[in-house]
Structure formats: C-alpha cells, structure tokens
Amino acid sequence: MFIMDMLPQYCGLILIDFNKNEQDDKMGSYLEFDLSDHPALKKALDQGSDKIVFERATDFPIKGNYYIGYKPVIIGGETRAVVGITYKWDDFKDSIRISCPPSG
C-alpha cells in the first residue's frame, strides 16, 4: 500500500509506503510515474472522482504483472493524493493454486 502525491508539481512523490517487499521506494522519493500510462486513474482525476478505480499494469511499481487499486484523496475540492494497493498477479495466482489445489 502506498500514498502518492498527485499535485502536478509533486506527482509521483511517495508520502507513505507500506511495502512488505524489499523495494527501495522510501517516503520522500519519487516513483517514475507518468499519468498517461494509467488511464483509469487519469479518468478519475479528470472527473474529480473519489471512487476507487482499478487497472492492470506491467511496470508499476516495478516490472511485473500487477493489478492496482487507487482511491483518490480529495481535500478542499482538489485531488491531493491517491492511496494505492498493488497486487502482483503472478504471486497471487500462485498462492491460490497452493491453497486451492485442483480436485480430481
């Protein structure tokens, strides 16, 4: 889970990062984040929506097959940040296979 600044001058700034993996992303660092690569989030921000949106990405936060859920944080009518949760699909899929072995 992460909280990332979305103000234009700070877009990609990590405000909080709760990461169980051993990534180098730390509070105060920037993610390589191009909003045009995240159409679901861009649409929500353009509409001023505070609804949770989901998307699939192959390179965010790092290379892999990810599903990402974003919750825009609106303060004073302006989207200031997003709370995001990333799920690495390959790891999730493998954990399902282990916990639910095929029958037969």
Structural description of this entry:
With 104 residues, this protein is of the alpha+beta class. The chain has a single domain (2-99), classed as Beta-Lactamase. 19% of the residues lie in helices and 33% in strands. The protein contains two helices and five strands. Strands 2-1-5-4-3 form a five-stranded antiparallel β-sheet. Strand 4 (66-75) and strand 5 form a beta hairpin. The radius of gyration is 15 Å and the shape is elongated. The N and C termini lie far apart (37 Å). The model has no long low-confidence stretch (mean pLDDT 82).
Question: What's this entry about, in short?
Answer:
This protein has 2 helices and 5 strands.
Order of helices and strands: EEHEEEH
Gross CATH architecture: 2-Layer Sandwich
CATH class bucket: Alpha Beta
Indicate how many domains the architecture comprises. Answer: 1
CA distance, first residue to last residue: 37 Å
Question: Which overall shape is indicated by the principal axes computed on the Cα atoms?
Answer: elongated
Cα gyration radius (Å):
15 Å
The major β-sheet equals:
5 strands, antiparallel
Beta-strand segment tally: 5
